[in-house]
Amino acid sequence: MECVFGLVGNGFAIVAADTSAVHSILVHKNNEDKIMVLDSHKLIAASGEPGDRVQFTEYVQKNVSLYQFRNGIPLTTAAAANFTRGELATALRKNPYSVNILMAGYDKEAGASLYYIDYIATLHKVDKGAFGYGSYFSLSTMDRHYRSDMSVEEAIELVDKCILEIRSRLVIAPPNFVIKIVDKDGAREHAWRQSVQDVTTASV
Amino acid sequence: MLAASAVYTTRCSLNKSPAWTETLKECSKLLALHHSRCGESRLHAVYKKYSKVENGGVLLWFHQPMKSENESKVSEKAREMARYDRAITVFSPDGHLFQVEYALEAVRKGNAAVGVRGTDTVVLAVEKKSTPKLQDSRSARKIVSLDNHVALACAGLKADARVLINKARIECQSHRLTLEDPVTVEYITRYIAGLQQKYTQSGGVRPFGLSTLIVGFDPYSRIPSLYQTDPSGTFSAWKANATGRNSNSIREFLEKNFKETSSQETVKLAIRALLEVVESGGKNIEVAVMTREESGLRQLEEAEIDTIVAEIEAEKAAAEAAKKGPQKDT
């Protein structure tokens, strides 16, 4: 039921993830941020076992930080993606992590890039990728409308089309999504798409 | 005769063979006797000098287990020094851990380093021995970041520093991972001091030969701190401190001239203190600053340092002139 997808545009990469934290039939919260900012110019959008997801992405984030302190320069997106894949691969035949990851990043030399890393340590560099049941719908929609070198507005339009498709066709569709973007100016939150908001105060 | 027997005696004690001819053995026996008795002689200064590590600890060799031919009475003091300064895990009868004290000697030979804590700024300044022309100075940074809000400078064995810094950096990230919080300056200081202490109580290892100055701002409270650790594993917080070469003179200067400062004044105080023992000029000093507002450590450019040094010199000159001025009038 967790939907994560992303694509690469002209000098930027964009990822969207649903924001429901679910345990069997209960929805714990509707605003769980599943896209972690790895460092100034990298994002990890993760889906899978909630415990593994948090544990693994934080572990990767701290190791990426450590590399930067030790060496004075940040890891490239490719290096970070390969490190992540390596950790998943090492754990795979002992106690595997059940986490699927889309890693988006911006490097000065390589530009914007997106990496597809699944829970059995498959690594692909892609222009568009998706995980979860929502991938059936978002991948097809992206296949139909994606062009290389889209502008931010066009990319957001495509993301919204995917979210619409997921909401209308997936039986238990997540109500809310968060969209984050990474480009030469860094990694940041771009927008939320909310159809259900947590009630914070009781109406009098 | 004397020279020859001296050579023979030395070869004996170094266990080299063949030693020499029989005729020299008598003379050398006498030499050995006098050598081992020197601890009791009146020439204490000479004895001390040649017991020191720089001079090869020559006087101490003679008190190793000797060949039966050279058996002679050995003085109590000399025997102590020999037995208790080899292994780190052994106390001497008068309560010293000699290896730790020797490590402190190593620190005293290292580059001078100064740390000053201001109200909203912390500064580290380190002496930079003249860089060889062909060396890339950026690879020999003496002041390093442990995390975004903590920095470290050290005096002593640089290779030991690398190991300690690496472990500290891992601990900073590990703390963030397990506790979801950045380290406080005191925590990471305690960790580094703990590591240094561990190596004074294990078999087969030697202490780290360095003292560190650790500065930073605590997360959330943003209180500035300066800590110092040494090879024995003790640590304490300071308002300003120095370590390494001539640290005593720098500390005296700081004690005389310290006052609560902020931003640029703190930087100036640190540089002024370091200039007491270092040749003036931007290329002989490395300075790094951390402020409460900005995150991260800022290394000052050589040009910036030169400007500040020029300001300091001008202030000094003005102070000198002011002192002399009134006297001339009367």
Label this structure with key terms.
heterodimer; A: 204 residues; alpha+beta; Glutamine Phosphoribosylpyrophosphate, subunit 1, domain 1; five-stranded antiparallel sheet; 12 strands; B: 330 residues; nucleus (chain A); proteasome (chain A); Proteasome_suB-type (chain A); cytoplasm (chain A)
Overview of the molecule:
Chain A: It is found in: Cytoplasm; Nucleus. Chain A: Keywords: Cytoplasm, Nucleus, Proteasome. Chain A: Its main location: cytoplasm. Chain A: This is Proteasome subunit beta. Chain A: Belongs to the peptidase T1B family. Chain B: Belongs to the peptidase T1A family. The complex is a heterodimer of chains A (204) and B (330). Chain A is 33% helix and 35% strand. Chain A has 204 residues and is α+β, with helices and mostly antiparallel strands. Chain A has one domain (1-192): Glutamine Phosphoribosylpyrophosphate, subunit 1, domain 1 (4-Layer Sandwich). In chain A, the strands form 3 sheets. A 5-stranded antiparallel beta sheet of chain A has the order 10-1-2-11-12, covered by helices on one side. In chain A, strands 5-6-7-8-9 form a 5-stranded antiparallel beta sheet, with helices on one face. Chain A has a two-stranded antiparallel sheet with strand order 3-4. In chain A, helix 3 packs antiparallel against helix 4 (152-169). The model of chain A has no long low-confidence stretch (mean pLDDT 93). By secondary structure, chain B is an alpha+beta fold. In chain B, 45% of the residues lie in helices and 16% in strands. Chain B contains 11 helices and 10 strands. Chain B has helices at 2-13, 23-37, 44-51, 58-61, 76-84, 98-109, 158-179, 185-198, 247-257, 263-275, 302-329; strands at residues 113-117, 121-127, 143-147, 150-156, 210-217, 224-229, 235-237, 240-243, 285-291, 298-299. In chain B, strands 8-1-2-9-10 form a 5-stranded antiparallel beta sheet. A 5-stranded antiparallel beta sheet of chain B has the order 3-4-5-6-7. In chain B, a hairpin with a 6-residue loop joins strand 5 and strand 6 (224-229). In chain B, helix 7 (158-179) packs across helix 8. Chain B starts with a helix and ends with a helix. The A-B interface holds A 58-59, 62-63, 65-66, 69-70 and B 145-147, 166, 169-170, 172-174, 176-177.
